[in-house]
Write a structure and sequence with these properties.
The complex is a heterodimer of chains A (273) and B (181). Chain A has 273 residues and is mainly alpha-helical. By secondary structure, chain B is mainly alpha-helical. Helices cover 89% and strands 0% of the residues of chain B. The radius of gyration of chain B is 66 Å and the shape is rod-shaped. The termini of chain B are far apart. Classes of the chains: A mainly alpha (273), B mainly alpha (181).
Chain lengths: 273, 181
Amino acid sequence: MMGLLTLVASEAAPEKGSTIEIGHHVERTWLGMTFNVDTIWATLVAGTIVILLGFWAKAKITQGDPDQVPTKIQLVWEAVVGEVTKQVEDNLGKVNPFVVPLAVALFFFILIANWFELVPSQLNDQTGHLLPAPTADTNLTYALAAITIVGVWTFGIRSKGVKGYFKHFLEPFPVLLPLNILEELVKPITLALRLFGNIFAGGIMLALIGMIPIWGAWAPNVLWKLFDMFIGGIQAFIFALLTVLYFGMAGAQHGDEHEEHAEDEAKTPALAG
Amino acid sequence: MASVTSQLVPLQSNFLVPNGTFLVELFAFLIMLFILAKYVIPPINKAMTARQEAIRRQFEELDEAKHEAESAGEEFRAQIADARHEAARIREDAREQGAAIIAEMKEQAQAEAARIVEHAHAQIEADRKAAVASLRNEVGTLATTLAGRIVGEALEDEARQSRVVERFLADLDASATSGAN
């Protein structure tokens, strides 16, 4: 893949000799671990923006009478919080004081982080990207998925009890135990890699478009950035929605399934007869 | 196989393998989540609930006001209908009274006219009687005088004269009565 991209790049702009660097980060080593400084920096900026937006809305809310007409920033937050609350109520049966903030935070943070990709902050090949989309780094998406899945497991164990929760790995048949375990592991990995892949691919597309000379690049650039904005919103929405759905699945009582199976068993002889 | 893979994509630059950044991201997001969950989401929820409550209350008030207005309108309409009814009744009364007054007046006028006519008749009768009486007296004298002159003999005898006149008038009366019949 790298070779192909390098090939394309060298064909597109042979005189510059530039290549697209994939997964290249500004790295620092500390305590024997490698840290991607640009991702961390962009994460902090995105998180700060989200928190500032949140406090802006809060300031507008507490400013006056709650009966007053809401401001626009307040409406944005209220729309997201209200929608997430509705989803949580539909899927979990009741509002969970942890799931709603988690999903809201995931949505806003991923949205802002994804849209960093639209900011033309690439300085040059040496200093790198000033504000890369941090969601194009698996470190961030793995972290988000880890928080989500640990929360899901905790919620499942707390709502069903340890025994009840682990019993569901043997359902509907004990033979499916490996598949059930695999499912639980696939959930966070797909969460992380779906987000990463979309945003990362968007960045590669932008880099490729950047290879086109400027008189031809502007139209695909504008089109792709608009589309990328859409992708960024969709990915943030999907991540938050799937988080809520996973919580709902973890907390779901399997009584309904048993009833369905009972019905199936009752029907089968009749059909056979 | 592993060596081939690591040759193609060295582990250091494999973007699918997390490094220390993972831990930083984990804590960064947890801190952000904590701040949002503690300071931002609760007031937003509170404001939403408060506004929903306010809107619900306003709708209730609206319903109440509508109800009141409807009942007031109903009352108004009932009063209007009552007033109209009353007016019709008064008009009917007035018409009846007017008719009664007219009838009474007519009766009175007729009675008056009848009385006047009656009076006139009586007057005429009395006048006639008086005229007849005076005529009787005068005709007697006149006729006697006239006859005396024609006869040339003074019929000075009062009793005789009177008797003659009476007889004459009785004849006259009898002939008049038979003529009228």
